[in-house]
Design a protein that fits this description.
Helix content: 40-55%
Shape: globular
CATH class: Alpha Beta
Distance between the termini: 7 Å
Radius of gyration: 16 Å
Length: 188
């Protein structure tokens, strides 16, 4: 199984990045090939709904310069896509939002390139917003006809900077999510 984790945090070091690092380590230990892409390294241009992706039908955005198409290609090659982001102002951070908006239009109007793929979500917030970000990313996956791997409790961390391991329920959810992913990988 090949997994891709998209880190949608706006900062390079923090709870989301540390959780992603733990996930990569655990998944690779269990034989899952894992690639981590930090979206903060990109400067996505907003989608202007030009619908060129629909007219072309090739699953590519007309903006070839901002990295969207490269990430979409990696997503199409992956068996599992994990979206990880903190909750900012009632949703995902701007860098994740820009990417998800562009990707959704290209994928839905273009080639439906994620249809039937597996997905999972991790969110974190110090106070409010983790659940909203979690729900936003799950909705995006469902909109793209993906199979979402869940866990109980949800992997929606309520914690401060770098204190995610203190969130007992979040850690239990992460452990269960990783077990579910490993079980799925073993079946393939």
């Amino acid at each position: 199984m090949r997994a891709l984790i998209l880190n949608g945090s706006a900062r390079p070091i923090g709870s989301t990045g540390n959780i992603v690092g733990d996930m990569v380590e655990e998944m690779e230990k269990n034989g899952i090939e894992t690639l981590h892409v930090a979206l903060y390294e990109y400067h996505f241009t907003p989608c202007n709904a030009c619908n060129t992706c629909e007219m072309r039908g090739d699953g590519r955005c007309m903006d070839e310069a901002d990295g969207t198409n490269e990430i979409l290609e990696v997503m199409r090659e992956a068996d599992l896509i994990i979206l990880a982001a903190p909750g900012y102002a009632g949703g995902v951070p701007g860098v994740m939002k820009l990417f998800l908006e562009k990707a959704a239009l290209v994928l839905c109007k273009g080639d439906r390139g994620l249809r039937g793929k597996y997905g999972a979500v991790v969110s974190v917030a110090q106070h409010d917003g983790a659940d909203a970000a979690y729900n936003e990313m799950v909705y995006w996956m469902l909109h793209n006809e993906m199979y979402v791997i869940g866990s109980y409790p949800l992997t929606s961390f309520k914690t401060g900077f770098d204190d995610y391991r203190k969130d007992v329920l979040g850690m239990k959810g992460l452990k269960n999510l990783l077990a579910n992913i490993t079980e799925l990988a073993e079946k393939e």
